[in-house]
Specification:
Layout lengths: L3 H18 L8 E14 L2 E12 L2 H19 L6 E13 L5 E14 L2 H13 L3 E8 L2 H29 L2 E11 L7 E2 L22 E16 L2
Antiparallel strand pairs: 1-8, 2-4, 2-5, 3-4, 5-7, 6-8
Length: 235
Amino acid sequence: MIRPASLAAALLVAAVAPVCAQPAPPPSGTALTLSTHADKTLPRDQLEAELRVDAMDANAARVQADVNRRMAAALAHAKTVAGVTVETTGYSVYQERDAKGNPTRWHGSQALRVKSGDFAALLNLVGTLQGQGLALSSLTAELSPAAAKAAQDELTDTALKDIRARADRIAATLGTHVERYAELRVGNASVPPMPIRFMAAAAPASSSMPPPVAATGDATVSVNVDATVLLAPVR
């Protein structure tokens, strides 16, 4: 037997449950999707070079000693050049074998990476290190992080203003107004580095080596913006 108080509570739950189960109503108005992008061309303002010390010998200890000595000298000289950042990378020593799998000699190498916005200083340093017997593995021109960040901020402002102007213009044409921005996606600027092609060759130590040349060219920075705008009737 159901008591009156229990019956009243059951009826209240039954009355409320359908209301709670109803999905939220969709936003009123018209959803407008817009896309735009802004771009800017800038000169690449940074050079990065990677040079390599190589040594070969039948004795592993002599190979490593040669690599260590030559890299220490190259690193010490590179650190004296103002405005150039320096780091070492890629130290490896392995034993070479002939076609029959017999060990022949040891091969050791280590890389030195230098980077600068002062093109003349970096290229002269590379030429000096080439003259000391280091081989130039790669030479790359790129946009510095500071320049890319400044361009990204400027282009983001430009793209957002364009989105806003287009949304206002479309809303006015439709006899509506921009109620709010429901969704906004802003991309990050991406500028791949540009490898500079050259013929790599190790120079005899102490030879007269002119510095390499580099035509860095321009980079195009682009930012994309996508937006979903809700348009509502003018009241």
